[in-house]
Please model this.
Amino acid sequence: MILGSFAEGHWHTPVNGRDVLDAVTGDVIAQISSEGLNFEAMMHYARNVGGPALRKMTFHQRALMIKELAIKLNEYKAEFYELSYASGCTKADTWIDVDGGFGTLFTYSSKARIELPDEPFYTEGNTEQLSRNGTFLGQHVMVPLRGVAVHINAFNFPVWGMLEKLAPTLIAGVPLIVKPASGTAYLTERVVRRMTESGILPDGAVQLVCGSVGDMFDHLTCQDSVAFTGSATTGMMLSQHPAVTKNAVRFISEQDSLNSSILGPDATPEAPEFDLFVKEVVNEMTTKAGQKCTAIRRAIVPKDLVEPVSEALKARLADVKIGNPRLKDVRMGALANMGQRREVYDRINEMAEENEILCGGTGAFDLVDADYAKGAFAAPTVMYCDKPFEKLKAHNIEAFGPVSTIMPYDTVDDAITLANMGEGSLVASLFTHDNNVARDVVMGAGAYHGRLAIINRDSAEESTGHGSPMPHLKHGGPGRAGGGEEMGGIRGVMHYMQRVAVQGSPDIITAVTNRWTKGSSEAVDTVHPFRKNFDEVELGTTLHTKARTVSMEDIEHFANYTGDTFYAHMDEEAAAANPFFGRRVAHGYLLLSFAAGLFVDPAPGPVLANYGLNDLQFMQPVYPGDTIKVRLVCKSKKGRPGQIYGEVRWDVTITNQDDDVCANYELLTLNARAE
Ligand code: NAP
Model:
């Protein structure tokens, strides 16, 4: 099979290429080369065909597209699983890569539809008043970058690795070119083939390079971005490319990470956390044969628990069946290829210069239905570093396979220091049932880790574990881990957008954001706003109500009727001593009720329900004898085609006889759409 690349709307297949081998049998499974591709033209195509098509769509349309894609790809799962076995993965490993990848698409799709507007851009935060009279305002708006996102991925997650970046990029409205690692590109290529056949994505939204990226980096512009996953050496080389530095190209890097897990001082062998810790270390060593960027490389345990932890790990690992990943009872498969095994063995040998090998190592061993000479199998290897403050190799060398090093600690502070000696990691976990230890570790280690997973008996059953990056949370870490941030829910989408600070008058800000801004023009009409259906109400549609005087009788009646006889409303003397009031005041809830009484139009009509109230603030007390009135302005509208109603948000301001603002809030109504 010669792997193709998808470029400028077509599949391009090279005449021949470099052999890619099956990780288990050593047979040639594919050939790969990007020879003949015009990388500059591919980038143009993305910018000029894919970008405009995506930018025409709203966040919701892009999110629905991603969901449709996930549903479609799911139909080909069996085919993807079959190819994944060739990379040495078991069924469980593949589930993480394939199903995990589709799950990421679903999560992103749903988050985008809940958290982002049905618009092609995003209005971030509140308006900033930049002038005394409010005629000049500032508002941050996020718009899609107009370039192409180049994704360079590692070999260990050929599907999830692609999709975790693809989802936020496409939702942002940015086209991408994905370049999978050559060793497992055959699986990525198949997924992209199914994607392109589906016709779900607009032309130019996704292109694929199998093989090297040629001169692509020379053509990067300030609107492009690069998201790299792989080794620190490659990451550094690419981030220093002249076009990247000259054009300040956004470059995020996810790279080597010496992740750690701390066994809390309270987690003695009798405590549930002890077993949970041992299970997790074994799980992280054997899942994907330890080729997970998040795997636990350093197991940091209280000094007096080194012995029981070592014994428990050895015993569990001895039970792990290793061999042909297609077999049901095989728990651990092979590394991705022989090159990786050589690499892992070199790292083990280097680390063994100062650490003791407790089990495993670099020799041949028995396999289930597989040949050690042909397949890239490596034994789970546990090492022991007796002086982790002096012997530093385990903190610096990443053996990207089933390898973990136990290191002892005396105090929690020491454990934190050891965890931080990885100089920045994707994730650290802590197994404790002691809340104080948890807080100390978060405060002491948080700055060095992208994620801290604290697991104990209360959360274990539902915990997603040490090693699983979740689409809702950022995946990335500082320092050695590359300083990158992928995913993280909507913040992952924003990475592919430009934040622009828009400055102008209230009317300008309203027009740009499609959200009524205080100070903008009001559209007062003879027709009451509540007589207008969703489609008739416009941004700025305003009602100024008549006034109403609040009497002492009203306050007492409200107090007795509701039971809210708080002293500030009922006790003149006590209210006089209150620093905010000085005398009896009206209930805030009375004001809200009176406001509704002033602005509501009672007859049945297009307003179906009042379903929320946001950002309520009482700014000024209302005293008996004060006269209030209300201004109601349509602030924003959200409606989906096909629905019989839409959501209208209203800005509500209650003022007194001196025009002081007494209360302000956002009111949400559901309004019927035009027939
Ligand atoms: P790698 O050798 O650095 O390769 C990573 C990617 O970079 C591959 O797609 C590779 O393509 C490409 N690449 C290599 N040289 C390039 C160049 N000159 N120009 C453009 N692209 C180039 O890393 P790997 O061996 O695949 O992955 C293992 C490493 O990745 C481990 O160290 C692991 O820690 C790290 N990793 C980190 C994460 C994370 O999220 N932090 C996730 C997974 C893996 P070719 O395959 O075609 O050379």
